Amino acid sequence: MIQTVLAMHNGKIRSIVISGHSGSADKGEDLICAAVSAIAFGTCNALDLLGSDAKCTIGDNRIEIRTVTEDETTAVILNTMRIQLETVQEGNETFVTIRKTEV
């Protein structure tokens, strides 16, 4: 299962951690994993190219995005990511979970 944790503070996303595999298909054929990976990598690229100081860490079965300062560009990008992940989760709750925590 792909597990996503959004750490929120005053209604704003401070960090996003994605880990695991959906297990919905064989390795290399898993469209849910591919969708979540594309969303995460696209988000990291957008943050970098649009000048955000958010930090993306990509490791084995884990992607972590942490904000450094609060700015509007970063907030919009991270909220877009949240919406995209929620869209993937719809109808795929067996393979994708999203949990929000307040920090």
Topology summary:
Layout: E1 2-9, E2 12-19, H1 31-49, E3 55-59, E4 62-66, H2 72-89, E5 96-102
Parallel strand pairs: 1-5
Antiparallel strand pairs: 1-2, 2-4, 3-4
What does this structure look like?
The protein is α+β, with helices and mostly antiparallel strands. The chain contains two helices and five strands; from the N terminus they run E-E-H-E-E-H-E. It has a five-stranded mixed beta sheet, with helices on one face. A hairpin with a 2-residue loop joins strand 3 (55-59) and strand 4. Helix 1 (31-49) runs antiparallel to helix 2 (72-89).
Helicity level, as a percent range? 25-40%
Mean pLDDT: 96
CATH class: Alpha Beta
CATH architecture: 2-Layer Sandwich
User: Within the largest sheet, what's the order of strands?
Assistant: 3-4-2-1-5
Question: What is the H level of CATH, i.e. the homologous superfamily?
Answer: Cysteine protease Prp
Distance between the termini: 24 Å
H-E order = EEHEEHE
Helix and strand content put the structural class at: alpha+beta
Strand % is 25-35%
* Oligomeric assembly: single chain
Shape type: globular
Largest sheet: 5 strands, mixed
Summary tags:
103 residues, alpha+beta, Alpha-Beta Plaits, 5 strands, 36% helix, 32% strand
Quick overview:
The protein is of the alpha+beta class. 36% of the residues lie in helices and 32% in strands.
